C-alpha cells in the first residue's frame, strides 16, 4: 500500500488540541504568556484559551519559515505530493472530530461543518496532484536569435491569513498550493476560530510536513504582528481571505516592501431568476446559495432579483423552505441553521433587517432575533425591499434573503452590477443562450448558471472589482505561489 493511503484509526479529540503557537515544528507559549479566550457561539460557553502572539513571536515564525525554505523548495515534487496526499487521508480519517470542532467554534450546523471538512480535504488532494505539474515552457524568440525558457519557482515565505467562516477550507486552500509550489508558510487564523487551524497543524505534522514548513500564529493584535511580518524582507507573499476593508489596508502595507499579494475579499452576490426559470430548481439553488453556512459565506446570495411574473411564487416558496429550517445549537444533528459567529454579527443582521423594514420591506418569515442564549437569528425572507436599503449594498453575512422584482433583462443586469463587489453571481433561466449572454455581462469572477454552488477545488475561485485579486483552486491557485523565471538563452 502506498504511504499516502495509510490511515490512522483514532478520531480527533477536541479537548486534546494544543493551544500554543506552532513555530518551527514546536508548540510554545506566546512571549509574555498572554492568552485569548475562545467561545462557542451556540452556548456562549468557553472553549478554553489560545496563545496571544506578540510581534516577536510573529518574527520567530518568519525566521522558522525562512530557515526551512531552501530545503522545502528542493524537496522533490513527488515527495511534497505524497505528504499532501497523506494530509488529505488524515483529514478524512478525522472528519467527524474536525467537523464537531468547526461547529463548536464557528456555530455552523454539523452538516455544513462536515461538508466543509470534505471540501477542505479536497484542496490537499488537488494540490498533491498539482505539485508535480509546475510546468514551464520553452519557445523560440520571434526574432529567431535565442530561446525563451520559462521556469516556475516558489515565490518564497508566505503569510496566509484566513477568516472565521470556513476555518478549515480557507486554510487548506492556501496551505495546499503553497506547499505544492515549494513555499514555506505562516498561517494566521481568525481569532474567532483558531482551534481548527491548530488541529490542522497537528495533521500536517503527522503527514510528514518538515519542521518550519507550516507555522501557525494566533494573535489578538493582527495589525502590528502582520505588519512586522510584511516589513520583514524574508516574507515574499501575502495570501489573504477576509473582508474588503482589511484587504485594502493590507494591500497598502504590503506595497511598502512590494510583497506579492493574493486577495480573496468580500462579496455581495446577486441571484437573478428569470421568468422562464424552473422555479422549484431556483428555490433549491437559493437555499444552498443563501443558507450554506447560515448565510455566513462570501459566496452567499445577498440580493435576489426576480422577474415580476414569478416574483410572488418564488418568494412564497422560498419563505416556506426558509421558515421550516430548524434553528438550534450547531452540533445537534437536527439543526439546519446554527447561530451567527458572535454578537457583533448578530447586531449587524438585526440592524440590516430593521433598516429594510423601516424603508418598506415586508417580512414573509423570520425578522426577529431569537430570545435565547447564543447568537441566533432565524432564516428571514424580505420582499419589496427598497433600493436604498443597506442590506442591498453591504454583505449581510446572515440568514436573510432580500427580494427585489425586475421587468427586463437589462434592468436585472444593471441592478446586479450596481456594487463595488464582484465575486459571484447566480442566474436561473431555462434559456441557455440567455444564461450565457447574461453570464458574460455580469461583473463577477464566478457565475453559477442554474446552480446554487460554485466552490470546487478544481475551479479558479476569486473575484473581480473589490472582491479581490488572483485566484485560489485549480492550476491558477498553484501559480499564485510561483514566480515565472525567464531565461534567455542561445544553444
Ligand atoms: P476580517 O475581519 O477581514 O478578518 C480576516 C482575517 O484578517 C482574520 O484572521 C483577522 O484576524 C485578520 N485581520 C483583521 N485585521 C487585520 C489587520 N489589520 N492586519 C492583518 N490581519 C488582520 O474578515 P472576517 O470577518 O474574518 O471574515 C469575513 C469576511 O471574509 C467577509 O467579508 C467574507 O466575504 C470574506 N471572505 C471571503 C472569501 C473569498 O474567498 N473571497 C472567503 C471567505 C470569507 P482577527 O480574527 O484576529 O480579527
Question: Could you describe the 3D structure shown?
Answer:
This protein has 491 residues and is an alpha/beta fold. It folds into two domains: 14-265, Aldehyde Dehydrogenase, Chain A, domain 1 (3-Layer(aba) Sandwich), CATH 3.40.605.10; 269-456, Aldehyde Dehydrogenase, Chain A, domain 2, CATH 3.40.309.10. Helix content is 38%, strand content 20%. The protein has 14 helices and 20 strands. It has helices at 55-74, 77-93, 95-106, 110-130, 169-181, 194-207, 222-231, 244-255, 279-291, 311-323, 343-358, 409-417, 432-441, 474-479; strands at residues 21-23, 26-28, 35-39, 46-51, 137-140, 147-154, 157-161, 185-188, 214-216, 235-241, 260-264, 269-273, 301-307, 362-365, 380-383, 400-406, 424-428, 446-449, 468-469, 482-489. The strands form five sheets. It has a seven-stranded mixed beta sheet, with helices on both faces. It has a six-stranded mixed beta sheet with strand order 9-8-7-10-11-19, sandwiched between helices. Strand 1 and strand 2 form a beta hairpin. NADP nicotinamide-adenine-dinucleotide phosphate binds next to helix 7 and helix 8.
Distance between the termini: 45 Å
Looking at CATH, which topology of the largest domain would you report? Aldehyde Dehydrogenase, Chain A, domain 1
How many domain units?
A: 2
Query: From the 3D coordinates, which CATH architecture of the largest domain would you assign?
Result: 3-Layer(aba) Sandwich
**The first-level CATH class name of the largest domain:** Alpha Beta
User: Which small-molecule ligands are present, each listed once?
Assistant: NADP nicotinamide-adenine-dinucleotide phosphate
Secondary-structure class: alpha/beta
